[in-house]
Amino acid sequence: MGQQSNLKVVIIGGGFGGLSAARALDKASVEITLIDRRNFHLFQPLLYQVATGGLSPADISFPLRAIFKKQKNIKIVLGEVIDIDTWKGEVVLPTFSLSYDILIISAGAQYHYFGNNSWKKYAPGLKSIEDATFIRSQILRAFERSEFETDPHKQAALLSFLIIGGGPTGVELAGAIAELARETLLNDFRNINPLDARIIIIESQDRILPPYPPELSIKAAKSLQRLGVEIMTNSIVTHVTNQSVTVKSDKNEFTIPASTMLWAAGVKATGIGELLSKTITVETDKAGRIIVQPDCSIPGADNIFIIGDLAHFKDKNENVLPGLAPVAMQQGRYVGKLIKKRIKNRRTIKFQYKDKGNLTVIGRSSAVAFRGKIQLWGFTAWLLWVILHLLFLVGFENRLLVCIQWAFNYFTRNRSARLITGEKRL
Amino acid sequence: MGQQSNLKVVIIGGGFGGLSAARALDKASVEITLIDRRNFHLFQPLLYQVATGGLSPADISFPLRAIFKKQKNIKIVLGEVIDIDTWKGEVVLPTFSLSYDILIISAGAQYHYFGNNSWKKYAPGLKSIEDATFIRSQILRAFERSEFETDPHKQAALLSFLIIGGGPTGVELAGAIAELARETLLNDFRNINPLDARIIIIESQDRILPPYPPELSIKAAKSLQRLGVEIMTNSIVTHVTNQSVTVKSDKNEFTIPASTMLWAAGVKATGIGELLSKTITVETDKAGRIIVQPDCSIPGADNIFIIGDLAHFKDKNENVLPGLAPVAMQQGRYVGKLIKKRIKNRRTIKFQYKDKGNLTVIGRSSAVAFRGKIQLWGFTAWLLWVILHLLFLVGFENRLLVCIQWAFNYFTRNRSARLITGEKRL
Known about the structure:
The structure is a homodimer. Chain A is 30% helix and 25% strand. By secondary structure, chain A is of the alpha/beta class. In chain A, strands 5-2-1-9-21-20 form a six-stranded mixed sheet, with helices on one face. In chain A, helix 6 (168-184) links the parallel strand 11 and strand 12. In chain A, helix 1 (16-24) runs parallel beside helix 9 (325-343) and helix 4 runs antiparallel to helix 5 (152-158). The longest helix of chain A is centred in the first third of the chain and has 19 residues, at 129-147. The radius of gyration of chain A is 22 Å and the shape is globular. Chain A starts with 6 loop residues before the first strand and ends in a 14-residue tail after the last helix.
């Protein structure tokens, strides 16, 4: 397909970064191959809604082939990259290799247990659809088991939900679990009272949402407390077992029994940096992110671009850009345009991030947001969140359905996707 | 809860039968316990839509606790029945037992491989949400793999979908897979042409839909052939491997290579009859169904009722009632009312099935239906199918959303839930 002379662009990862890069290259004289392990783009900011039964996986997942149905210069490959050979210019998959002229890597991040990988099986993180449906089953199963538990200690543990990490993900999860327990499940049980459920955020710093202005952290904490969420700040998790978390707080160490522990305490880059470093010198930071140049390429390899959560990009104020969807999207669009300019031998400029602000939703009618010095909270911030997310979803067929599902959930306080599924059924 | 004098009614199974029985007992002076292995009621007639990416699991699954939120005389237990002691009047679960005065068993059916259980892993049946999402992944993965398969024989096998059994389930699956390939995926690939996909129904009798009038079987076959489905009648499957099915047809035996084989050839009752037979004499038929009396109770135990797919019930013309949702629902409602009458010492009558007719959908705007001598086909039958299913779904919150999703799918020919999920991701 296409002329032989076309540049071969290989994109690894169909997340926000990869998708934006591919779209920016629409109608360019290039042959794009987009590789992903999944056959769909995942709208990660709403994954916590799947984990708490508010939305179905398909509501926030968009088949990559459907997205690019009409873009003729792109091929989609469902597969896992097992090696990258920068000398040959090849990306290696289990059964074949793909040669590239330009490589864009947007492979994202995964949860980071800071050396305690054994905690992973007790306190899963929320990155994939499978994570979300597993956590959903775990939360719902805890309520089901508590209904017929006669030992009050065990019952209390079953109704304790610990969220490790008080950043945006932890706050959103805690708010959604609290609403699930206090509103959706309120009249569902006969022996237990879902209001007895304890939802606890454990945060190592002195306030939740550390990247936010302190006033907003306080507002968010108050909103959460109104939903019944307990917040433990200055608290470090020192041990995790299948039935408890040990916390060190102000020199005291104590153990909280719980059956559901969720990890939202930090991410690290996926291991693709190691593949690159076999044939090229790459520098990574502590979180495994690859240090890139002002045009998002790797020093010494101007045909390899790293974007999104995988990239360590310093802006003009020497701040490293955070792992947020808008950063990945802007970088993807930038690299796509840069390639077009290079083809036409036009002058290229450095990448510059336009800060779109930060926004964390706490629950029905409650959120916090800031952009520079502008701060929003409560219903106003929540309304902004709804509008922005619906706008983001524009371009994806499902946006109307998601909107209707939300309206349903909002007015009925119901969460119809609260299914316990998967292999282990009880 | 309730007065001590209340009758204890235990219902095993939250399918159509169990649900109807529990609902019929609303406001009766009984203490109901409904036991199911799942926390939701599954609307099985639409399961093939999940298996082919048209609907999400939550669209056809309804949390049992939500259904019975307002019915105060019922407790829901998520658990598996491991024993039944009819002497003590107890149903045994792994961690506790429940005593009953009246037991209603509506535990359904499972796929029957007629002694060839090793075929199960190559040709899965469609009974649970997990079956449906597994089959969905398998079908979509076959297309993905064929896109990059260079060996034409292997590619042809990847694009061959064999459906073993030409009853209603087999016909609905074949029609939906054909539409997925020929409409939804039409422009999704660059190397393969989804029109090359072969969808083959293998039926042992001389026509598909054997319980239907012959004229409708012919009409259904023509509709399927218009969708590109091949139909092999008088064909018996003699062997199934992970890459082929061997078929015996008119004394010829031949092997069809395929990567996707689906089983829709027959069901048998779940094993609960064996639990009962430890303490009581139960008679079962060849399919494992328990032979019941005209009031749906077991001979010799008028406090144990068997309803739905698990029951072998002979109507006044000595015909055994088929394993259909309307049968289970009518039996459930009947038994619920019978219990109410017994409490009030009123006279009870025998169960009588009101035949609501048969309806099988083939695809967009195509179905076949009959009731007695009335026959419908094509768009008329399809419209009836849509209306009936929407009416059935009345009472469940999601009906509007399912309706909207269908409208989307109908007009856009899209299937937004075509996700490859689960542990084995590639």
